[in-house]
Structure formats: C-alpha cells, structure tokens
Write a structure and sequence with these properties.
By secondary structure, the protein is α+β, with helices and mostly antiparallel strands. 33% of the residues lie in helices and 11% in strands. It has four domains: 66 residues, no CATH class; 242 residues, no CATH class; 79 residues, no CATH class; 34 residues, no CATH class. A hairpin with a 4-residue loop joins strand 6 and strand 7.
Length: 508
C-alpha cells in the first residue's frame, strides 16, 4: 500500500497517485450507490481515456484488493433461522439445527438435509451474522500515532474542575479504577459503550424487516470525537427479517469471547508511545431504547412490573393526587441482580418452550464478563429516544393531533378520579361526545396556523437539521416524520420561538 501511494496514476501525473485515485473513485461509488457492474464499466472507460501506461485497475475486484491488504477481516457466521444457535465451535460442521431441526441452508424443503458436505457446498445459508473482530481494529487505532494520542486524552488533556464533562468524571469510572487497580492503572485501557437497535436497511418504515447492528464507541476519546462516525465500530450485523429479541445473546457470543480476551490483556503496539503494552478493555455500559434494554438485560420491560428500578414494588396507581412522603427504593446493585438471575436456565430460539413467567426472562450473556456484577450502572436509556417521544407528545398536544394528544378524554377522567383541576372535567352533552373545556395549552385554529407558519418559515444552515419546512403540513396542521435530531432541535430552539406570542407565559 505504501508503494502504491507513491506511484503516479500515469507517467507525469502529479495530482493523483494510484492509491488516492482508486480511493476517491470507491468513495464516489459508496456515496452514490453505484452497482459493481457499473463501476467496472466506469473503470474500463477511464482507463481508455487516460494516457497509455496508466495504473488504473480494470475491475472492481482489483480496486478493492488494492485498498484492503491490511487484514481487517469480516467473519460471516451461519445461524439458525429460528435464532437457536450459531454454526461455530461445536456446531460448525452441522447442517441441521440441533435444537429445532431446521436446515442450515436455503432450499425448497427447509426441514430436510442430506448432511452431505459436497451437496451443501456453495449453498446460501438460511440466516447469517457478520462479525467484525474488534481486537484487530483496536490494534489499528493504536498503530496510528494521532489516534493513539487521542486514546489517552481523558488522562492527559481533560480539564479537572469538578464538572461533569465526560464519562471519566462519572462515579462509575472512579469505581472501576478503585475495584480494578490493574485495569485503572493504565490510561490506555479502553472503556467501551455498546448499543444496538433494529433498523430497516431498505429505507421503508412500512417494511417489517428488522436488521440489528451492534455498535461500539470508545469513551477514552475526547467528547467531540467519541460519537463521531469514524470512531464508532460496528462489531456485529444481525440479519433480519425477524428481530432476535430475547435470543440476541446467541449472536453476541463471538463479541463476548473477544471481550473476555481483552479483559486478560492483548499485546498491542502503541505508535505514539513507541512501545508494546498489554491492552485491556471492558464494557462501561450499554445504551439502548427501552425495548432493547429488556433484550440485553433480560428484564421484562412490559406488564405491571415494567420498571427495572422498582421491580416488585411497582405501583398500579402511581399518581393519586397526594404528596409522596416515602423513601424511594434504591436500585439493586450488580451482585443483587446476579443472585436473581444466576439460576435461570433459558433455551434460546423461536421454537423453544417459553420460560416460566418472571420479571427476569434470562441470565444475560453479559454476566459471563467477570466485571459485570461489579458495575454500578450496567444498562442506560438512550436520551434521544426519550426526547423524541416527549417532542411527539408535546406537538401532538399543542396541535390536537389524533392519537398523539395527551390531553384527551381519558386524561380528563383521570383528573376527576384524582380530584384535581375540577374546571377541566369533561362535560356530558347527552348523545353528543363529551365536551372538554379548553386548557391553558389549548390553541385555537388561528393559533395553530400561526404556530405551523412559524415552523414552516424557518431556514437552517446545511447540516444543522432536516429541512423543517418539509416536515410541516399546513393542510393538516401537524408535523410529519421528524427524526430524533430534528426533535432535539425543535425542543431546544424552535418550539420556544413558535409559541412565544401564542401561549401564556406560565405555559411557555
């Protein structure tokens, strides 16, 4: 690769080397979604247009081979379509799932397999998971002097003024340093955040296909870099069309094995310090929305005991109009949770018998990590999901959008039951629907029009947010399809401006 970066694209060319030209072309291919066939045709045309003896590859295979010599491999692992097992380790040579009997491969009769290696050779698997090994990628980061320096920023360059600016300022970071002195004594050891959620790779929200990427971010980096796309690693890509749900532990197994190796230490070259050292890494926490929180932690986030903090003490009627004078329950620590789940035995797979009803559905695979029970906070909720839900409810209430308004007939009846705000009680109009007296946040049609016109007229810099104008429907008086970041911008900047001349000051 070093030689190709010094070789000119054609004799006398000073602007492009062979490597830089191929890299720019492949970036264009990725950005614009060109097919492999069209890209090969483009290479052939450019090769004819350039001077003789040029170094441009003729095919996409040659182009990719040129920029991928460094060994960041991807493991494609076959999986049971019912999420029972991965065909690795003891199951690697099997052609039929040992738990549900479904064939490993796609063919007309899914329930039969001849077990013949030659007959099954070349067949497409019924389901796959792509694993991107994290250890070689961490080694690559430390092989770059600039990245290796950034990975110790939290120790060498951060401000120490007592303010919470970075995860290093949190109690959990300090607890890890105290409980694991060997780990905390080396500033280059990595603290990782893990996140996963379902997404549709086809861009259509109406499509029920659900592919699950598992992403890892590095908290050693400065706060303005640790969430940048360049430093977020996709460690797993779990194929759809069905979401893994509670069986996600089956797919996390190769990642957990590498995390266990990193707990013991891996020899790595530090290009900034110019020395070899034992690199260790641990999962600092997971960050998900509430349903994915349940899938990773094993806690049942549905039903009467859906609160993972209160558990059995979850109240049926939390809001009764009275002041709560009791002491809030402290959440269970890692050791307390481990005592509850250590004896749970769950058979994974869509065809497996459902486990007995319990607020804990399984013993999560994260408990195999030796430090997991010592973490004070193991699973966190994604603030962007929560903020989007709050924004949708706020806009739905202000604009009286059916299905999203939180000031409906049921809310007014709850107020009557709690004996609060009697002026807002629903009034029976006989055969007609009940009349709901306007609340302080209720807007007239003129005010709704003014509110929507304000949002419709906003112009923002490129990259600041989506084009808000396209989200506003002046005909229906509602916002359609705001994304998480759009909701953040609306909540913090735009809605306060839009309601400034409409709603009373106490409501604002």
């Amino acid at each position: 690769m070093s030689n190709e970066s010094k070789r000119p694209l054609y004799p006398g060319c000073t602007k492009f080397s062979k490597l830089s030209a191929v890299l720019k072309l492949l970036n264009l291919k990725a950005d614009n979604g060109w097919s492999d066939k069209s890209f090969t045709s483009l290479l052939e045309l450019l090769r004819e247009m350039l001077p003789d003896n040029n170094e441009l590859p003729c095919t996409i295979y040659q182009a990719k081979k040129l920029i991928c010599p460094m060994g960041l491999k991807v493991e494609k692992i076959h999986a049971c379509p019912n999420d029972c097992v991965l065909y690795r380790g003891e199951y690697e040579a099997m052609h039929v799932c040992p738990k549900c009997g479904v064939s490993r491969y796609r063919h007309k009769n899914q329930d039969t397999d001849d077990g013949n290696d030659e007959g099954n050779k070349g067949r497409a698997p019924a389901k796959s998971v792509w694993y991107f090994p994290i250890i070689p990628r961490f080694k690559r980061l430390f092989a770059n002097p600039k990245d290796a320096k950034l990975l110790r920023w939290h120790e060498d360059e951060r401000k120490r003024d007592g303010k919470l600016r970075h995860p290093v300022d949190s109690p959990q970071w300090r607890n890890i340093d105290r409980d694991f002195t060997e780990f905390g004594g080396e500033s280059r050891n990595l603290r990782l955040g893990l996140s996963t959620d379902g997404m549709s790779p086809f861009g259509s929200m109406s499509n029920r296909h659900s592919t699950w990427p598992v992403l890892i971010c590095i908290y050693n980096l400065p706060p303005w870099l640790c969430m940048k796309r360049r430093y977020i690693m996709m460690s797993l890509l779990i194929q759809g069309p069905r979401q893994p749900g509670n069986d996600i532990d089956v797919y996390l197994a190769p990642l957990i094995e590498d995390l266990q190796k990193l707990r013991d230490g891996v020899r790595v070259w530090d290009a900034y310090g110019k020395e070899q050292f034992e690199l260790r890494a641990m999962v600092f926490c997971t960050i998900n929305d509430f349903p994915a929180y349940g899938n990773l932690s094993g806690y049942s986030t549905k039903g009467a005991k859906a609160c993972p903090i209160c558990e059995d003490d979850t109240q049926k009627k939390e809001f009764n109009g009275n002041t709560e004078l009791g002491v809030a329950r402290r959440p269970l620590d890692g050791k307390g949770v481990f005592l509850l789940v250590k004896n749970l035995k769950v058979v994974f797979g869509k065809c497996a018998k459902a486990p007995p009803k319990n607020i804990w559905k399984k013993k999560s695979i994260f408990w195999e990590l030796p430090y997991w029970e010592y973490l004070e906070v193991r699973h966190c909720l994604d603030v962007m999901h929560i903020e989007k839900n709050a924004c949708d409810s706020l806009i739905g209430t202000l604009l009286n959008i059916p299905g999203k308004i939180k000031d409906g007939i049921n809310a007014r009846k709850d107020m009557v039951e709690m004996k609060i705000r009697p002026k807002l009680a629903p009034q029976d109009k006989g055969k007609q629907k009940a009349y709901l007296p306007p609340a302080m946040c209720t807007m007239s049609k003129t005010e709704k029009t003014s509110f929507c016109k304000c949002l419709h007229s906003i112009k923002v810099p490129s990259g600041y947010s989506s084009n808000i104008k396209k989200l506003v429907s002046m005909k229906d008086m509602k916002l359609i399809g705001p994304k998480s970041h759009d909701c953040h911008v609306l909540m913090t900047h735009m809605i306060p401006v839009a309601i400034r001349g409409i709603l009373p000051k106490p409501v604002r």
